[in-house]
Amino acid sequence: MNNSFRVLLCGQFISQIGDKFYLLAIAYMVLKETHSPAMMGFVLFCSFFPSTVIGMISGVFVDRIDKKLIIILADIIRGIIILGVGIAFYYDSLDIKLIIFAQILVSICSAFFDPAIPAIIPQIVDKENLAKANSRTQLVRGICSVLGPVLGGMAVAMFGYFFIFLFNAASFIISGFFESFIKLKKAQKQVLKKQTIMQDFLDGFFYVWNDTKLILILCVIAILHLFVGSIEVIIPLLADWVDGNGLKNLGFLQASFGLGILLTGLLIGFCNINDKEEKLIFFSLFCVGIVMMGIMIIMCFQIKVVLPFMLCLSMISSFIITAAICFRTIIQKKVDQNIIGRVFGFITSISNGSIPLSIFLYGILFSYIKMEHLIFGTGFFMSLISFVLFIKYNPKKTKNIKYLE
User: Fold this and answer.
1) Gap between the Cα atoms of 79 and 305, Å rounded
2) d(Cα 339, Cα 205) in Å, to the nearest integer?
């Protein structure tokens, strides 16, 4: 790995830690001020939904504009927005409308930032190092997922909300500063057709739509993210089901999920998975289903100790991140740089949209179906669909689609 990639990772670590602090603080503050879980949920919804909608078109601009400039501006603008929230809080002018407005603006910036990051990595590292580069970005995410909530809660308790707002604003601005030192490989200049934004969007859409293999892998990722939302609902229910303190169990289970991300990012960084990415995606989805069925078996034996469930959740997050790393690597290797932003834009929208949809759907289903039955059914369906999609994806049974090189 080169210095430019290390600089990118440093910026990501700083901004993600700050963001974890901020989201925890803003959710807790809204809940305490409004005494309304629904309002807290709406604020968090506003943190993600705009990026889901705009992500479908943001990839067009990622392909048209300098990707490095996009990630720098997105971080700096987010820093300025959060700084404004901090200033409003300091002068006692922060109300729920301003918070919602700020969350929407930050989410819009994220709609451009999120697809630009995986799209720029092929311009930083060599092709054979893409899987390792993606694993290290996930390693940073895992570290932040484990440390962020713990340190964020401590920071809110010790220093208050104003410190968190300033810290997050500074983290975004510092991240943008780090990203300004990234050096990109010289790309071969290509003549682009002069066409409208809608034509660019349709080119990206039909590029994905006409690639049978890409569609099948995208289906796997969509299914995986759909059921990631179910995990978000399952974790609090499991925490309450097992013996001991519910809040303490919840902390253990959430930490184990983040630990799986961390360890897998570290492991793949030292392994050679080149040319194995496609099989690993289907294998990962299959294994997530098997582990979920295993959770049901543990519950049927009335094993109410938190440790087995912690191990299961670590395994689930490990397989989820393996699939995500492999999928990113496939896109970075196979898709031309002129269209890669649009492809990642579609992926980001599907990912960001399917998780809240799944949380909403499973929240309803758990009200009518016994937890262990629904968990088993989800696991069985995931394993079955992964097998069916793999059979359809098999190169001997699918027509050869030529990727742009």
Assistant:
1) 43
2) 10
Structure tokens, 154 = 């401590």
- C-alpha 296/C-alpha 376 separation (Å) is 6
Q: Rounded to whole angstroms, how far apart are CA atoms 290 and 322?
A: 16
Q: Which of 285, 274, 242, 339 is nearest to 129 (CA)?
A: 274
d(CA 15, CA 10): 9
Helix (H) or strand (E) holding 352: helix 340-368
Rounded to two decimals, the pTM is 0.74
| Assigned token pair, 110 | 């994220």
Equal fold, 1-184 vs 197-398: yes
Find how far residue 76's CA is from the centre of its chain. 21
Question: Residue 170 carries which side chain, given as an amino acid letter?
Answer: A
Query: Which residue has tokens 């809660």?
Result: 153
Domain covering 197-398 in this structure, CATH number: 1.20.1250.20
Cα dist. 395→215, 217, 278 in Å? 14, 13, 11
Segment 121-166, tens digit of pLDDT: 988 988 888 888 888 887 887 788 777 766 777 788 888 889 999 9
List of residues 6+ apart from 50 with CB closer than 8 A: 104, 107, 108, 111
- How crowded is residue 127: how many other Cβ atoms within 10 Å of its Cβ? 11
Second-level CATH architecture of 1-184: Up-down Bundle (1.20)
Give the start-to-end residue ranges of the domains of the chain. Answer: 1-184, 197-398
* Contact assessment for residue 34 and residue 43, using Cβ atoms and an 8 Å cutoff: no
Q: Which of 383, 110, 401, 331 is nearest to 223 (CA)?
A: 383
Q: Give the DSSP H or E segment for 340.
A: helix 340-368
